[in-house]
Design brief:
Helices cover 30% and strands 26% of the residues. The strands form 11 sheets. A 7-stranded mixed sheet has the order 3-2-1-4-9-6-10, with helices on both faces. A 7-stranded parallel sheet has the order 14-17-20-23-26-29-32, with no helix packed on it.
Length: 833
């Protein structure tokens, strides 16, 4: 006996899952529901199958092919326009006109005994056999009425409660003699239940009912689809779940890695090439699709996940269906009953209210609260660049294709024949994206000089003399994120005007087309380190350092600063003890999340070896921490204060630039030593741009995290030069570093973060300004900074996340906390207003 699999429906009630995928390919326990049907047919000896197709027919035909991979022979007929259930089968008449055949829906899940049905059909010599089931609520199905002998006497298609005369419904599984084709004309629309079966009953043909008690469900709506997955996991339907059953109720596919500290609760089906990190909770009644990442601390319960998804750290998903290629970032909450279509990105901290639907390619901003279904919209957010550069989950959001498009967009902004310098850190993901960016640049006729693996300060320095640069690295804020910074010819991040032009080209994909003979040329820089070291030493006074005979402990934190510093320090006779002076990405990730432990370790080593000082270089080479000769840690604001003090003591009338968020204690240090401090905007680019504009008039500047700028050498953040410059100034002081640290005053600051939707930021800032403009001294250099008795308070909208940042300083900790809390409370009130 041959079979027909009805696979032409659009599955409109399954949207948004079926917006891009035909309903028969919707996976149940990580396998398309139609594949489960084909396995059932093969189990009962049926190996020649005709599939009737209409909606996204190519997808189904491409998946199953000729059927050989599934142990069957597949034929296909495609409806150009819907012809009804029977009209579609009429198109397959040439395959079915030699014997009785069975019809099965391609979007139902069942383990019905097909052999018993076929035997009953033959034994009764029926013209048609319809498989029936008894259900508690027959409203959504075709009701069938039978006599005492099982012969069908009446059909009711989708009845009302007033028309319910039976609880026996039509499953859509039929066994038919080929004579049924005589009831139809080719090209006309017919339906079995509405047209053919009632006519056959009226003519006295044998239309037999076969009541089955085996499992059967139609995945006609989202709730039924989800329940079908749960039933498969719980063994309510006899079907094959791929993968090894490592313990009862836990199926795991090939090349899947589950951390020993992850909690996997049966029943659960986990696909192939899946990664589940420490602390994640998966199950029960959960399906994880192939090539999915479940990050540390994520929690998934009663969730059906498709392929190529990412679930970020501490996210919580329950009772939901998540289609393929979705990115669910850190701390996201997705409520019960939600359905997320393919290709969506849900930003960090966002919350999706229960029972909502997100159609494909939606982008939910970080911290947003989604309270209604999202149907219309675009894929990408309005901004490609964030506060620093272009960032996203490595190989999930920032893919090789994405990086190549970014390279094409940047290259199309530049003129053909210009040269761009590219560089990266040593992580394999950065290497891949760097090469993809290079390919994009070359394809639009821009030449590339690749610096390869060097710290960001050296890359900024080497960019001078080119049209610009691109540096790829793992984000210092999140070890799972990749950060791509686009630099101008001065080695500083490009300004907002250039960012917008690159964004427009990227989103429109308006890339320059270049003839084959005019593509860019790739070359590799060979003397950048030598040039950097020479300029480095020229800006210093090496003899002062040589006479000091310092012993310094340097911790390179497994970063690529170790590629640079030995070449410089070898010329200044500083005895160095190097720690972690080789690249190891696994340990580097540990450093990023446990930096304080490494600093404490450095302090212990310095004390043990009686070193003059210790320096810890962060992975990017832009920031560093210092340990003095007494083992005390000097970091961030205190390091900025220490460098300000040393510059002010050494340079008469020194000019220093500091971000608006930093303590006024630095003003007191500067004033006491004849220096002046200018307040600037706090973002990274503004700090470096100010240093470049004020070159020759500025002696020192620092970022919000203590990133040093010494314009005598470079206008960019450079912890490598900053560390050696600190040694030089300390040598000139001819006193222990601890003496200078003891000169630093105490200060009292407090900070707050308040969640705030993007669309509320503007009105909140206006309201805060209106409420404080008569309060006295108001500074608008960066955010709104208001003078208070004994201190100040500053509100600054966050450039990357949906939140407001509050900074405050007071005479003591209590006053600083009170100032910060008072303003934070007012902002929270305005958010809710």
């Amino acid at each position: 006996m041959k079979a027909v699999v009805m696979a032409g429906g659009e599955g409109s009630r399954l949207r948004p899952l079926t917006s891009r995928l035909p309903k028969p390919l919707a996976p149940v326990a990580n396998k398309p529901v139609m594949e489960h049907i084909i396995e059932l047919l093969r189990l009962h000896g049926i190996t020649e199958i005709v599939a009737t197709l209409h909606y996204l027919a190519d997808e189904i035909e491409s998946y199953f092919g000729d059927g050989s991979a599934f142990g069957v022979t597949m034929h296909y007929v495609v409806e150009d326009t819907p012809l009804g259930t029977a009209g579609a089968v009429k198109m397959a008449e040439r395959y079915l006109n030699d014997d009785s055949f069975i019809i099965v829906s391609g979007d139902a899940l069942t383990d019905i005994d097909l052999t018993a049905i076929m035997n009953d059909h033959r034994a009764r010599n029926a013209d048609a056999t319809i498989v029936l089931q008894r259900v508690t609520n027959p409203l959504e199905f075709g009701v069938v009425v039978t006599d005492d002998n099982g012969r069908i006497t009446r059909f009711l298609e989708k009845p009302s409660w007033g028309e319910i005369f039976s609880d026996t419904i039509n499953t859509g599984i039929y066994v038919l003699k080929p004579e049924i084709f005589a009831y139809m004309e080719a090209g006309r629309s017919y339906d079995f239940s509405k047209d053919l079966f009632p006519r056959m009953v009226h003519e006295g043909k044998t239309v037999q009912g076969f009541v089955s008690t085996d499992y059967w469900t139609d995945i006609g709506n989202l709730q039924q689809y989800q329940q079908a997955n749960f039933d498969a996991l719980n063994g309510k339907v006899r079907c094959t779940i791929d993968g090894e059953q490592i313990r009862p109720g836990v199926w795991v596919g090939e090349n899947t890695q589950i951390h020993p500290e992850a909690n996997v609760i049966a029943p659960v089906a986990i696909g192939s090439n899946v990664t589940i990190d420490a602390g994640a909770i998966v199950g029960g009644d959960t399906v994880i699709g192939n090539s999915t990442i479940v990050a540390a601390g994520a929690s998934l319960h009663r969730t059906v996940g498709w392929d190529n998804a990412y679930f970020g750290e501490q996210c919580h998903v329950t009772g939901s269906t998540i289609a393929n290629r979705n990115i669910v970032k850190d701390r996201v909450t997705i409520g019960d009953g939600c359905v997320v279509g393919s290709g969506c990105t849900i930003g960090s901290g966002a919350a999706i209210r229960p029972n909502l639907k997100l159609w494909p390619d939606k982008n939910v901003s970080s911290g947003a609260i989604v309270s209604m279904s999202l149907i219309y919209g675009i894929k990408w957010p309005g901004s490609l660049f964030g506060a620093i550069g272009v960032s996203g989950l490595a190989n999930v959001e920032i893919t090789a294709e994405f990086a190549m498009k970014l390279g094409q967009a940047y290259g199309s902004f530049l003129k053909p024949g210009m040269t761009v310098l590219t560089s990266r850190d040593a992580h394999p993901a950065s290497r891949i994206m760097n090469r993809a960016i290079i390919s994009g640049l070359l394809s639009v006729g821009v030449n590339v000089e690749d610096l390869q693996n060097y710290p960001l300060p050296l890359s900024r320095f080497a960019t001078h003399g080119t049209a610009g640069g691109v540096h790829c690295r793992i984000s210092p804020d999140d070890p799972n994120d990749l950060l791509i910074e686009v630099l101008d010819s001065a080695g500083i991040n490009v300004d907002k005007t250039v960012e917008r032009k690159i964004e427009n080209l990227f989103f429109r994909e308006d890339f320059r087309r270049t003839a084959m003979d005019e593509v860019g040329v790739l070359s590799f820089r060979s003397r950048s380190l030598e040039e950097y070291a020479n300029a480095f030493l020229t800006a210093l006074k090496p003899m002062v350092l040589q006479e000091a005979n310092f012993k310094v402990v340097l911790d390179y934190a497994y970063g690529n600063a170790a590629n640079v510093m030995p070449s410089v320090l070898s010329h200044v006779r500083v005895e160095t003890i190097a720690l972690n002076a080789y690249y190891d990405e696994r340990r580097a990730r540990t450093f990023r999340v446990d930096r304080q432990r490494y600093i404490e370790q450095l302090a212990n080593v310095c004390s043990t070896l009686h070193a003059n000082l210790g320096i810890l270089f962060d992975h990017d080479g832009e920031t560093f921490a210092v340990v003095d000769d007494k083992g005390r840690v000097v970091d961030n604001d205190r390091l900025s204060a220490l460098l300000t003090l040393m510059v002010a003591r050494r340079t008469k009338g020194a000019k220093v630039a500091m971000p608006a968020t930093i303590t006024e204690a630095l003003d007191r240090i500067a004033e006491a030593n004849g220096a002046t401090i200018e307040r600037t905007r706090s973002d990274r680019r503004s700090m470096m741009a100010h240093a470049e504009d004020a070159r020759g008039k500025l002696d020192f500047a620092a970022g919000t995290n203590g990133e040093p700028i010494f314009p005598e050498f470079s206008s960019a953040f450079d912890a490598l030069y900053g560390a050696v410059k600190l040694m030089e100034m300390l040598a000139a002081e001819k006193c222990p570093l601890s003496d200078l640290v003891d000169m630093l005053p105490q200060w009292h600051v407090a900070t707050r973060e308040i969640a705030c939707p993007w669309e509320r930021k503007g009105i909140i800032m206006r309201t805060i300004l209106d409420e404080n403009k008569n309060e006295g001294d108001v500074d608008l250099v960066d955010g709104i900074r208001v003078r208070r008795d004994g201190g100040w308070v500053l509100v600054l909208p966050d450039a990357s996340d949906p939140k407001m940042n509050v900074y405050a300083e007071g005479r003591d900790d209590a006053q600083a906390q009170q100032y910060a809390e008072s303003l934070a409370t007012r902002i929270a009130e305005l958010v809710e207003a």
